[in-house]
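ok so I'm stuck.
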Amino acid sequence: MEQTADIALIGLAVMGQNLILNMNDHGYTVVAYNRTVSKVDEFLNDAAKGRKTIIGARSIEEMAGLLKRPRKVMLMVKAGAAVDDFIEMLLPHLEPGDLIIDGGNSHFPDSIRRTKYLESKGMLFCGSGVSGGEEGARFGPSMMPGGSPKAWPLVKDIFQAIAAKTPDGSPCCDWMGEDGAGHYVKMVHNGIEYGDMQLICEAYQLLKEGLGMSNDQMHEVFSGWNRGELDSYLIQITSEILGHKDEQGYTVDRILDTAGQKGTGKWTSVNSLDLGMPLTLIGEAVYARCLSAMKDARVEASKILHGPKFQFQGDKTAFVEDIRQALLASKIVSYAQGFMLLREAAREYHWNLNYGSMALVWRAGCIIRSAFLGKIKEAFDNNANLSSLLLDPYFQEVIARCQPSWRRVVAQAVQAGVAAPAFTTALAFYDGYRSERLPANLLQAQRDYFGAHTYERVDQPRGKFFHTNWTGKGGSVSAGTYSV
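replied:
not stuck anymore, here's the structure
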């Protein structure tokens, strides 16, 4: 069996097939394999028909025998047990120095575990986030690889060849870091995606319910926004969605208002709690999807619970601009929170993350791609140790400019009875983050009162704890120090 193939890919669903075709377009010989072998023949006789450098394999043994050494095998299978099952099936046919790549939406702790496991056997592991959906896989995704450091030289040329490119030709693929870093960055990417989508949906609801705009009018609004500071894939497709109609009318109006989710937003929120980072906007976006899924309960509640009778009084054109600026400011908060989490994760998991590189990787090919990301890259290029995007001079100026509109929008949403959790929590985070003093002093007093949890004092060094016998009956014994 002649060992001529550059890489093998297992899993011939649409993403896997499109990645194979993309690799082949860039001159790589690829082995295609699927557990259901009939899918290999279907692929070769359909999408890959006539492509002599896409080779079908009918067994893992045959697949391994076709690969150049060190072998590179990419898995595009369902996250979870299926990945571990395939790793075990592959191991008898691989040797030290070979590489297994997981391109699915795996949870980062699994990638940490798999890296250690394969390295213990002398092999390499790469867990790579792949964003951009089916079209991205075919013509250029955003890719976020991490894992065994020695894996990067083996996949760099292939991955950067098939990745999307920024306007200056830079590939939207770079090494994220050790063990689970690649899938962690993809997880946070997806969390930010949740936030972006929820903010856009709240803007849509305010335009629709608050201002009574038609789908055609909203289509024009979003089209206009996409030509300015909010230029992005999600704004673009929102405009197209609002303008889409057939003989039955506007498609969006016939879609049931219950949102699905695959778990990456929840993973981001849970991890932010584990690390003590306030990813409030992404958390609200996850909860908004959960609330939307309570359709029957909401229908019943709508018959019983009542809100304000509202009719907008004012300049509609000016309020549309207010919504645009509130969306921009809230979007900045979403990214600021996401990068704060990434910085804390780098400390917690001992990763050497390059934040500017992440912004570059997300500039094209992925779902959250936008012109806005160029400014994030510039911010980290100017200050690699930037603790928050909100402190960057450019973003300071944008927030200052947008702040009056942002506050008017949140106030108007409350007055109108239109739920806007993402807009509201973004503003609340901003106001909390800029506050030198928060009411947590009272909270700590409460905790010490009922549980002797102790507190620090403003006139004493940090790390020195005190307890007060608030009632004269509680005694002087404390519960020990606390952790945030």
